[in-house]
Structures are given as C-alpha cells and as structure tokens.
Amino acid sequence: MNIEKIHHTAIICSNYEKSKHFYVNILGLSIISEIYREERDSYKLDLAVGEHGQIELFSFPHPPKRPSYPEAAGLRHLAFQVTDIKAAVCELKEHGVSVEPIRIDSLTGKQFTFFQDPDGLPLELYEA
C-alpha cells in the first residue's frame, strides 16, 4: 500500500445553510460541487482546502449529537494550516467566531489555536 495523502475529511452538519455559510463565507473555502440527494433529503457539498485537500460537508435529517467535547472516540479535531495565525484569528473574530487564545506547541514551537464550527466540531488553526 502506498498512501500518498489525505484526500478528504467528511463532516455531517445539523443545519446545512448555516454550515455552508461558515465554511464558504467565513473560512473562505471554495465550492467544488454541490449536490442535493432527494432520496436521502441530504446535501453533499465538496469544498477545496488549499490546492490538495477537500472537505465533504453532508447534511442529514436529525443527525445524532457529538457524544462529548473534544474527547469522544474518533476524530478529535480538524486542523487547518495558515501562514499568519494572528490575521486568521482576527478574520474569524470579525465574523463573530469565538477563538481560544493562541498557544505555542511545546514540541514544535509553532503557534496554534482552536475554534468551533456551527455544530461545535473542534477546529484548529496551526501556523506553518
């Protein structure tokens, strides 16, 4: 097996329009495609993350809540690499997004911080 990279991350949201606005208009991700699947009463929105990554944003009627924050078994958080963390934090705050104080990774010396999407999914900004 020769795994080359992570192709996409799938996220299920509880309010499609609210989450679409967050990922497109606040985080600035580009729409690759948007499909409504009538048989599932579900949207699938493919978003570009940089040149190589993707997020698949799904909506389903009545998805179960996340069991706990952030230590539930499974995906702990999704991290986005940025070149200027302070500017990125300012942009998020301008859109009313609550952001934790910037911290320093004790292993790498790099700056990082956490915030949440509309469903409380923990997201991270990590400065390159």
Which class of secondary structure composition applies to the elements?
alpha/beta
Overall number of strands: 8
Mean pLDDT across residues: 91
What gross morphology would you assign? Answer: globular
Q: How is the biggest beta sheet arranged?
A: 4 strands, mixed
| Alpha carbon gyration radius | 15 Å
State the separation between the terminal residues, measured CA to CA.
29 Å
Strands ordered across the widest β-sheet: 1-4-3-2
Q: Helical region count?
A: 2
Strand content: 35-45%
Structure description:
The protein is an alpha/beta fold and 128 residues long. It is built from 2 helices and 8 strands. The strands form 2 sheets. The protein has a 4-stranded mixed sheet, covered by helices on one side. The protein has a 4-stranded mixed sheet with strand order 5-8-7-6, covered by helices on one side.
Question: Features of this protein?
Answer:
single chain; 128 residues; alpha/beta; 2 helices; 38% strand
In short:
This protein has 128 residues and is an alpha/beta fold.
